[in-house]
Design goal:
about 160 residues; 6 helices
């Protein structure tokens, strides 16, 4: 006794029931009251008929959808315009949250301000020091200042 094995590729889908339900949805009537014609069992071997039915299903539904859109255009078009305006507004209003480069700019501006203050202090204290030595002193003082005042710098960066 061999059991009948059915591979997944041979399984068939009955589109006629879906077609009738969709037609009933647009016409405002129950899909079960619509005459369905000959019903096919999902495991029948007549796949060419079902492919033909599914092709008719798609073309008939596009026509029906087009007709429904024409009927309801007086409220669908304003709804579409409102949705487009809302999408554009949300996109533009949330843009600053998606700009991490602005955070980098704020951090750089705060850091540059304090570095320039340190540079002017060192220039006034050591006017005859070579620029390489001044740069090393500025960097050393900046690292010290950064360790001590990190919280203050983060707070000022957040305010920008």
């Amino acid at each position: 006794m061999e059991e009948e094995k059915k591979p997944a590729d041979d399984e068939l889908i009955d589109f006629s029931k879906i077609k009738n339900k969709v037609k009933g949805l647009f016409k405002g009537q129950d899909a079960s009251s619509h005459p369905a014609g000959p019903q096919k069992h999902p495991h029948q071997s007549s796949s060419s008929n079902q492919v033909k039915d599914s092709g008719e299903f798609i073309s008939a539904d596009f026509k029906q959808i087009k007709n429904e859109l024409k009927k309801n255009a007086k409220w669908l078009i304003p709804l579409l315009c409102i949705l487009i305006a809302m999408t554009a507004s949300i996109y533009l209003r949330t843009m600053p949250q998606r700009l991490p480069i602005a955070d980098d700019w704020a951090e750089n501006s705060v850091y540059n301000f304090y570095r320039s203050q340190l540079q002017s202090q060192i220039d006034s204290q050591y006017p005859h020091l070579p620029p390489q030595n001044k740069a090393a002193l500025v960097e050393k003082e900046w690292q010290k200042y950064l360790r001590v005042n990190r919280d203050t710098l983060k707070q000022q960066t957040g305010m920008l």
